[in-house]
Specification:
Layout lengths: L1 H64 L1 H12 L21
């Protein structure tokens, strides 16, 4: 009888330990998966930021070293005109069906 109780206790203890280990491993696996997703998102963000940084550096270089680029930007964004140039502004055509 004592032998049966001892075997039964051993089995119960073993099952309990296995359950605890599985729960612990499951938590670790979930954390690892979350970290992998976070790493991927950060890596993607870094690529986007590096691309933006490269574009800003190129724009800065053009602004510092290329007067024609500054003139082009001034004309496009501020509607400035150069000496001897004429600016034509056209009104948008109104849709006859809108009346």
């Amino acid at each position: 009888m004592k032998k049966r109780k001892k075997i039964f206790r051993t089995i119960i203890l073993s099952v309990f330990l296995i359950i605890i280990i599985l729960l612990f491993v499951n938590k670790i696996t979930i954390k690892l998966f979350q970290r992998c997703i976070e790493y991927y998102n950060l890596k993607t963000d870094l690529k986007i930021l590096n691309t933006e940084n490269t574009n800003y550096k190129e724009t800065l270089y053009q602004l510092e070293n290329n007067p024609e680029y500054i003139q082009k930007i001034a004309k496009a964004e501020l509607e400035l005109i150069g000496e001897g140039e004429v600016l034509y502004v056209f009104e948008e055509e109104k849709n006859e069906n809108a009346n």
